[in-house]
Each structure stands twice: as structure tokens, then as C-alpha cells.
Amino acid sequence: MGMKFIPLDRNSYKPIYIQIADIVASQIHSGDLLPGDKLPTEAELCQHYQVSRLTVRQAFLRLEWDGLIQKYQGKGTFVAQPKMQEKLDPLYPMEELIESKNIHMDILFKEFRKVYPPSRVRKNLGLEEREQAYKLKRVRSIAGNVIGMETRFVPLSIGQRFSRQDLREVPFLALLNRYPDTAVHRMAVQIRAGIIADGDAEVMNVSTREPVLIRETILHNAENKPVASGKALFLASRYEIHMDITQASDADKRVVVLDEFKRFKRAAGSRM
User: Fold this and answer.
1) CA distance 209 to 241
2) In the chain, what are the domains?
3) Out of 60, 65, 177, 211, which residue is the most buried by the measure of CB atoms under 10 Å away?
4) Is the predicted pLDDT of residue 171 greater than 80, yes or no?
């Protein structure tokens, strides 16, 4: 179908670059332009609207900021695939949050085996150097489109409880929450941007150039004992995380500050 070149209003209070961005955005929102549709080149837009390349680039930057378009080096500019939105609630399975919106997420099982975990994971789980753990790797997709992958490590005593059928179908937190001694009561979360590793890109069947969000977690039970550790990768082009933050009371703030101060003193002491 392609983009419709709606005339500009040269007398409008709106700058030209905003008008161009609004023209594209309105056609995306109306469904005239669909995810994956290619947009006209900067040169074509410049020629049609008789504007500078800087004006067109400003319009595209505005659309990129809103997550409506995506540029691919050497290929052009395309309407972006809609991103999955997760309201960050670490103690609630992501799959259930998404399916509550009538969107089904497929879990593609990749592996579940005994390994010697990386030192960071071993430390998170409180394992000795020669102790093994179970490693679980699964890919997540929606309507055939990969959005992410999870890699989890659990102690052998916990991993042996899971059946292969469960590992192919059940959200990871739901597996842990089946048992009183592994039910998750606390989660330590670290979210960062990163570059996807070659091996992970191959498993997910995506390019190593894909930017990703990496969410590392340590899950603790009611006795504050770690029961699982690992990470989840989310393709940044197809996923975004939302958080609602409520202002803490002054008493709670003091507790947090005190905890941070204690942590800082311990870290400083270890370097002395």
C-alpha cells in the first residue's frame, strides 16, 4: 500500500518536521501503514515536500522516539513491530501478565541439563565450586515472533522435581511456587542494556546486532534462601518494561538509606 503523501499546511503553527511525523504516525495508528511496511527514503520525502534533509531527519527521530519506526542500516526505514509491554511485577509470572491481555505466549524448550554453573551464578546460589546445578534454557515467542529467552539455574535438589512436560509448558515462577520451600518471596533484580552473545543469538535465530534488555534475577524463598538464579533476554525492538513507583514514607527511606550505608561500609572494608 505505502505511505500517502498528505499535503502540509505551511501556515500552521506546527513546525514542518512535526507535521511530517504526524502524517506518518496517523497512518500507522489508523492501520494504513502496517508493521514491517517500508517508508519512503529521506530523499523521496525531501523531494516531495520540498524540505531539507535535516527536517526529514527530525521527523524520523520523533517517530523513533515514539517507537513507531525502526531504521535498518542499508535497508531503509520501516514501521516498527509493536512492542510487548510488561508492567514490572517481579513476583508475578510474565507469561500470565501477557496472557491477561488475551495474548498467548509460546514457550520453546531448548535444554535442561546438569552443568557446572558460572562463578557468578554459583555465588548467587551459595554453591560450592564443584557443585553442579540444573540449567534451563527456553525461548519465548508470540505469534511466531521471538521476543526473548530465559536461562535459569537451580540447585540439583530443586531441579529434579520438574518434569519435562512442565518445563515445556509452565512459567518458571509457577514451577517454583508449587512447593512451600521454593515459593518465591523475594527477588533481586538487575536490568541493563546489552549486546546479544553469538550463542544466544543462534538459539533465538536473530542477528547478533539486535540490542537486548538483560534482566538478571536471584529468587529467594520465605527463609531468604536462594532457590534460583539466571537471566532473561528481551529484544529491545519488541519489548518494553513499565514500572509504577510509589513514594515511600520517611521511615522507609531511612531504612533503605541505612541498608545502603551498611552495604557501602562492607564494600569499602573489603577493599582496604
Assistant:
1) 21
2) 16-79 (1.10.10.10), 84-242 (3.40.1410.10)
3) 60
4) yes
